[in-house]
TrEMBL record:
Region (Disordered) residue spans: 261-303
Protein name: Lipase/Acylhydrolase
Key words of the record: Signal
Every SGNH hydrolase-type esterase domain range: 33-228
Start-end of Basic and acidic residues biased regions: 268-278
Organism: Bacillus badius
Transmembrane spans: none
């Protein structure tokens, strides 16, 4: 159900970049984004909007380099294990095989559910052993994820995105320990990317620990559009050093985000329309009179 829900809005956000000014003459890059809610474009207020992935696609499009873009393999809430599971499906494998550029956002959902965020009091807490265990599992999953992608596609450039500190509203004395754990998470992604020849894209430095304007909801870890722009520009720095950054003016041209409730309602209506009516038992044709045989029938005899 969740997959169908987010696939149903592909026409709106899958090519958000196409709604922006276009420099034609595409040079052939097939870009596929995989991962969690950041790759999908979840907002701080339970909506789906344009992600850093859409902004990357826009930047490539502006340079006339984008042939295609897909974030069909990005789903809110996905852990590294769930991202790997997707690669067993034929549709996912076809996308990966075709890709020239792949970005990955995965890992936060392995660890963040273990961190308790009391957004009212600004308190953060966690147990060290479960977090360490989760990070070790995440490392193993990244090794497997990179291996499976490379088995499907040996030529694509792979960029693994780092994570920012998602609790800028917490009290200062609460931030350091959690920030240290997130630094470990980022280091694991960087190390495993390096082992397989992939690239790591750091983003934490663009947020810091106090970016409450980029992560505006104290009860939610997702960034505002400005945060996604920072992530996209971090990618640009790693992908094409020296290239111009995506300007903030682009944010005013993005399509409005769609609330989860509206997506669920839309999906329910769509599924209801797709339900086939029960087949009625055909009636036996009645013998026509001579008069009826001579008339021309305007509609089908059986409904």
């Amino acid at each position: 159900m969740r997959k169908k829900l987010f696939l149903s809005i592909a026409a709106v956000f899958l090519m958000a970049a196409s709604l922006l000014p276009l420099n034609t003459e595409a040079a052939g890059i097939h870009y596929v984004a995989i991962g969690d809610s950041l790759a999908a474009g979840q907002t701080p207020y339970k909506e789906i909007g344009a992600s850093y992935t859409d902004l990357i696609a826009f930047a490539l499009q502006q340079k006339g380099q984008l042939q295609s873009f897909s974030k069909q393999l990005a789903f809110p809430g996905y852990s590294t294990g769930q991202v790997i599971d997707q690669l067993d499906k034929k549709e996912a494998q076809a996308l990966i095989r075709k890709a020239d550029l792949i970005t990955i956002s995965a890992g936060a959902n392995d660890m963040l559910p273990l961190i308790q965020n009391d957004s009212v009091r600004g308190m953060l807490s966690y147990e060290a052993i479960p977090v360490a265990f989760a990070l070790n599992g995440m490392r193993k999953n990244y090794i497997k994820l990179f291996k499976e992608i490379r088995q499907l596609n040996r030529h694509a450039e792979i960029y693994a995105m780092g994570y920012y500190f998602p609790y800028p509203h917490a009290k200062e004395e609460q931030k350091r320990s959690v920030a240290d754990q997130l630094a470990v998470l980022n280091k694991i992604i960087e190390q495993e990317a390096a082992r397989t020849g992939a690239h790591f894209v750091p983003v934490a430095h663009r947020f810091g620990n106090n970016a409450d304007s980029l992560v505006p909801n104290p009860a939610d870890v997702h960034p505002a559009p400005g945060g996604y722009l920072e992530m996209a520009n971090s990618f640009i720095q790693a992908y094409a050093p020296g290239s111009p950054m995506i300007p903030t003016s682009v944010l005013s041209q993005l399509p409005a985000p769609v609330p989860f409730a509206k997506l669920q309602k839309s999906q329910s209506s769509h599924e209801a329309r797709e339900e086939k009516p029960k087949k009625e038992k055909p009636r036996k044709p009645q013998k026509k009179t001579a008069l009826q045989e001579g008339k021309r029938c305007k509609v089908s005899a059986y409904m």
